[in-house]
């Protein structure tokens, strides 16, 4: 399990307006990681970023702080250096409790593992939607 919420200069290929919510290395066997989100900020969207190796995504589950669970569909494979589609949460933002990802890294068993980052786009009350 990994908890975090911070800006990172290496995060998301320099894409502005996103906050790092967590990152993990994906094993070559299917696994499940639960990212606990410490920040109580509201987020309007999330997306996954993959580096170092292709990663096969099996499922994604987002638990909101109020207990609601979102299960958006997501691509089955995210290529090294690429990202998932933007997963919209709500224009007025939602507080996140956890993000659960089931995945596995591509490549041979003893090769480098893929790195998965979860990014959140913070709600800005001054944005006009």
Explain the overall architecture.
By secondary structure, the protein is an all-beta fold. The chain has one domain (2-121): Jelly Rolls (Sandwich), CATH 2.60.120. 0% of the residues lie in helices and 49% in strands. It contains no helices and ten strands. Strands 1, 2, 3, 4, 5, 6, 7, 8, 9 and 10 form a ten-stranded mixed beta sheet that branches. A hairpin with a 4-residue loop joins strand 5 and strand 6 (69-70). It is globular. 26% of the residues are buried. Residues 1-10 have low confidence and may be disordered.
- Ranges where pLDDT stays below 50 over 5 or more residues in a row are 1-10
CATH architecture: Sandwich
Number of strands: 10
- Which sheet architecture does the biggest sheet show? 10 strands, mixed
Share in helix: under 10%
Query: How many structural domains in the coordinates?
Result: 1
Assembly form of the protein: single chain
Give the overall form. Answer: globular
How many DSSP helices?
A: 0
CATH third-tier fold name: Jelly Rolls
Helix/strand order, N-terminal first: EEEEEEEEEE
Calculate Rg over CA atoms.
14 Å
């Amino acid at each position: 399990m990994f908890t975090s919420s911070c800006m990172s200069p290496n995060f998301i290929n320099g894409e502005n307006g996103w906050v790092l919510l967590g990152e993990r290395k994906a094993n070559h066997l299917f696994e499940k990681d639960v990212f606990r989100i410490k920040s109580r900020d509201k987020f309007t969207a999330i997306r996954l970023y993959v580096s170092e190796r292709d990663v096969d995504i099996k499922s994604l589950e987002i638990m909101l702080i109020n207990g609601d669970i979102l299960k958006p569909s997501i691509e089955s494979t995210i290529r090294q250096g690429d990202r998932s589609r933007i997963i919209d949460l709500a224009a007025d933002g939602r507080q996140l409790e956890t993000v659960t990802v089931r995945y596995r890294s591509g490549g041979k068993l003893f090769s480098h593992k893929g790195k998965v980052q979860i990014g959140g786009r913070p709600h800005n009350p001054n944005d006009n939607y």
